[in-house]
Specification:
Elements: E1 5-10, H1 42-51, E2 60-61, E3 69-74, E4 83-91, E5 105-110, E6 113-119, E7 127-134, E8 138-146, H2 150-164
Antiparallel strand pairs: 1-5, 2-3, 3-4, 4-8, 5-6, 6-7, 7-8
């Protein structure tokens, strides 16, 4: 099975309301005070590499967390909703921290890397996110928003996460 595998364990935790709007920042994202293995423009470079040739413009840093988060939006095409893809490389944050909608989250692995997939992380239809572990204590968050079709967004985010995972520092 492609994407997140072995997603059977529900994630427990406390939902933390976010002050973000789709496409501007990832849920649970804050700008860290220090660099680390995932700081800088790496998120834009990785996202551009993964999205190349798929109709997305060049990824740009988000307003709220420009140091760690980049996003790209594929415009609407006919009846197909626009697709927002966000990648946030967050040093000092565990992959299980700040899960916004724990009742819709499952643990699993992407290419062998521990991960959590969360449907509707901001309680919004059409969103799906995957948090990937980056040891010792960092994470990569891949978030997709596409119209109101959560199942399609989860399928898309699984594909993007599968391509992003090998570009991350090895655990």
């Amino acid at each position: 099975m492609a994407g997140l595998t072995a997603c059977t364990n529900q994630v427990e935790g406390q939902a933390n309301p976010g002050a973000s709007s789709p496409g501007t920042t990832a849920p649970g994202t804050s700008t860290p005070s220090s660099g680390g293995p995932s700081a800088g423009s790496n998120s834009c470079a990785i996202l551009d590499q993964v999205l190349a040739g798929q109709g997305f413009p060049k990824a740009t840093p988000t307003i709220a967390s420009a140091k760690v988060t980049c996003a790209a939006t594929k415009p609407r095409a006919g009846d197909v909703s626009p697709v927002d893809v966000t990648l946030s490389l967050q040093p000092g944050r565990g992959y299980k921290e700040n899960v916004g909608n724990p009742s819709q989250a499952s643990e699993g692995k992407v290419n062998g890397r521990p991960a959590i997939e969360e449907r509707e992380p901001e309680h919004s239809s059409g969103q799906c996110g995957i948090w990937l572990e980056m040891k010792p204590s960092s994470r990569a968050l891949v978030l997709v928003t596409s119209g109101s079709d959560t199942a399609n967004s989860c399928k898309l985010v699984e594909g993007f996460a599968e391509k992003i995972e090998p570009l991350l520092p090895k655990n």
